[in-house]
Amino acid sequence: MKDFHASPLPAIIDSSWKIGIVASLYHRAVVDALVDGAKTLLLSAGIPAANITVHDAPGSFEIPLIGAALAQTQTVDALLGFGVIVEGETHHARLLAETVAHGMMNVQTKELIPFAFEVLYVDSLDQAIARTQGADHKGVEAARSVLRSLDTLRTLRDATDRLRTN
Asked: Which structural domain range is residue 76 located in?
């Protein structure tokens, strides 16, 4: 997305936030670049390394399952899902990408925690690699997204708490 302008980080980052990263083992070099970008942003934003955990998933299809299991342990405040799905000669890749997207959204809405979707659905590995570099780095974008979502959820929960005490 060439016209993408990153939103600023929240003014207040809670250093106690725990972030779980679910990373597919397929196309590992690209996924590792996404993970590295996310971790760099999270660390520079003030999230301690001890609060960032990486969990392998056999493939992109399993990302929602591993994410749901992590969410149910209540050991993470937000999740990031990283994978690469390359389109082939059949529609299998499209079905896989759509299923993963729905699964991650279901985890997000059921568990009420952010789950950033950066399972790259591309025509070639070159397209995926391009999304791990520069201003279009999807790992960085995902990390920024969960921090913004955590901040918004904190604001909503604080407002709800204030209403209940009044």
From this structure: 17-24+31-51+59-119+127-134
For 13, other C-beta atoms within 10 Å of its C-beta total 15
Say what percent of the chain tops pLDDT 70: 95
Question: What positions carry a catalytic annotation?
Answer: 92
- Whether 89 maps to a domain, the answer reads yes
Separation in Å, CA 38 to CA 29, 89, 95: 14, 31, 26
Q: pLDDT tens for residues 7-18?
A: 788 888 999 999
- Please name the residue that has the structure tokens 């799905």: 85
What is the separation of C-alpha 108 from the centre of its chain, rounded to a whole number of angstroms?
11
Say how many domains are in the chain: 1
> Within a domain: residue 70?
yes
Question: Per the domain annotation, does 150 fall within a domain?
Answer: no
Structure tokens that stand for 42 in this block: 């999270």
Tell if the pTM clears 0.90, that is, is over it.
Answer: yes
| Strand order across the beta sheet in which 78-86 lies | 52-57, 19-24, 78-86, 115-122
Q: What is the DSSP letter of 3?
A: T
Residue 162 lies in a domain: no
